[in-house]
Amino acid sequence: MSRPTRPSRFWETLAVVIVKPLSRLLVKRDWRNGDRMPRTGGVIIAANHLSWADPILLTHFLYNNGRWPVILAKSALFKVPLLGKAVRGLLAIPVDRDSSEAARSLRVSAERLDDGCAILFYPEGTCTRDPGLWPMVGKTGVARLALESGARVIPVAHWGAQELLPYGEKKPRLFPRKTFHVTVGPPVDLSKYAGKSPHADVLREATADIMAAITAQLAELRGERAPETPYDPAGR
C-alpha cells in the first residue's frame, strides 16, 4: 500500500488558508528560479536557517512551486495536544537530536523519498550563529540521506526572515514591511561520491559541497562575497 506524499485534503487546506495569507501579510516577495524546483519525484531541499519564521515563508514558496515540503520537527511537538495531531496530519517527521532515535528520522525520510516526497532539510541543524549570518558548517545527516537514497539535493537560499523575526526573539518586527528573498540552485553534484562507503570523511566532504552550494546561492541573493571558510560553532 502506497503512502501519501501530501497531507489529506483537510490538513492541506487548513495549512494553506493559514500560511499563504500570513506570509503575504508579513513580507513582500522576491522569489527567483522557482522553475529549478523538480515538480515530481523524491527530492531533498537543503536550505539555510536564519529564523523561526523561515519555515513558514519557505513553505509558501515551495507550495507555490509545486512541492509539499515534508519537514523534520522536534519530537516534543508531537506530544503537544492538538499541535501533535496537526504536525502528524501535515506529514512531519519527528526527530530527537539527543538520542539514538535521530537515526530513525533518517530512515523515515528515506522511505518518504522513495514515495516521492520533498523533504525540507536544514543541514545546519539550527539557526546560524555566524556573525554575518552566512551558513555554518553543516551536520552530515543530509549527506548520508542523499548518498544512501540517491535522491537529488536542491540547494535553496533565502534572506529576510531574520529581519522579520531575529533568532531568539518571540515578537516579530512588522514595520517597515520586510522582503523575503529566496532562490533555488541547480542540483548539487555528488557524483564523485557514487559507490563510496559513507564513512565520516566522505560524509563531511559531501556535506561541505552541499553547504557550499547553499552559500553560493545566498551570496548571489545578498550581492556579497561569502567567507572562504564557513563558521564552525564547535571549533570557534
Automatic annotation (TrEMBL):
Keyword Acyltransferase: yes
Origin superkingdom: Bacteria
Pfam families (alphabetical): Acyltransferase
Chain ranges of the Phospholipid/glycerol acyltransferase domain: 43-161
GO BP terms: phosphatidic acid biosynthetic process
Signal peptide interval: none
Keyword Transferase part of the UniProt annotation: yes
GO cellular component: plasma membrane
Any one GO molecular function term: 1-acylglycerol-3-phosphate O-acyltransferase activity
Keyword annotations: Acyltransferase, Transferase
SUPFAM superfamilies linked to this entry: Glycerol-3-phosphate (1)-acyltransferase
Record protein name field: 1-acyl-sn-glycerol-3-phosphate acyltransferases
Provenance organism: Nonomuraea solani
